Amino acid sequence: MLSLVNMSLESVKNLSTRLRPKALDTLSFSEAIQWQIVDFQRRTGIECISDIEEIEESPDPEASTVIFRIFQEALTNILRHSEADKARIIFRKQDSSILLKIIDNGRGISDGKLENSSSFGIIGMRERSNMLGAKLKINSDSSGTEVELIVPLKQKIKKKKSDINKTLYDTLEDK
User: Residue 100 belongs to a domain with what CATH number?
Assistant: First the structure.
């Protein structure tokens, strides 16, 4: 019984970390990105090369969570689908925006999968970027995939968080 309670507590801790990673509350946004890179590399063995710039003007807490979630989804896609052994992450201020680029040397994503309504990770990334008024570009070929997110600084979330779940739910209902 005690082991079941401990497993449940561990699950709750993991879930809460996934909802709003503690790193976003305890580190600068740039440091949180770097922390995620180190953790991803440690867990997966995928070599990560990072070019992370400390940005004085961090996004507000809600926007930082959304950007971080897009970043995590891009890393998850590398692990699950790309067969990459290397990734490069660029994070810097570009004019009055934040630039986040994730590039891998994997097998790429077919155009069909990029546009497929059952590619929930990509759908979620697109919807999250729309919430921020950001530009999300995903380019892919047989030499890898590049995810580029450009987020205007001082951008507020446009939609309620529940709108993402509703849209994903609607997509599932269409199936």
Answer: 3.30.565.10
pLDDT digits (tens, 9 = 90+) for 103-116: 999 999 987 787 87
User: What Cα–Cα distance (Å) separates residue 56 from each residue in 29, 97, 98, 102, 149?
Assistant: 9, 12, 11, 21, 18
Q: Partners of 148 in the beta sheet?
A: 101, 137
Residue among 158, 13, 136 at smallest CA distance from 70: 136
Alpha helices by DSSP H, the chain: 2-19, 23-26, 29-44, 61-77, 111-115, 120-131, 161-174
- Asked if 34 contacts 50 with a C-beta cutoff of 8 angstroms, the reply is yes
Q: Are 63 and 157 in contact (CB under 8 A)?
A: yes
Across the strands, what pairs with 92? 99
More confident residue, 112 or 26: 26
Instruction: Give the model confidence (pLDDT) of 118-132 as tens digits.
Output: 789 999 999 999 999
Structural domains counted in the chain: 1
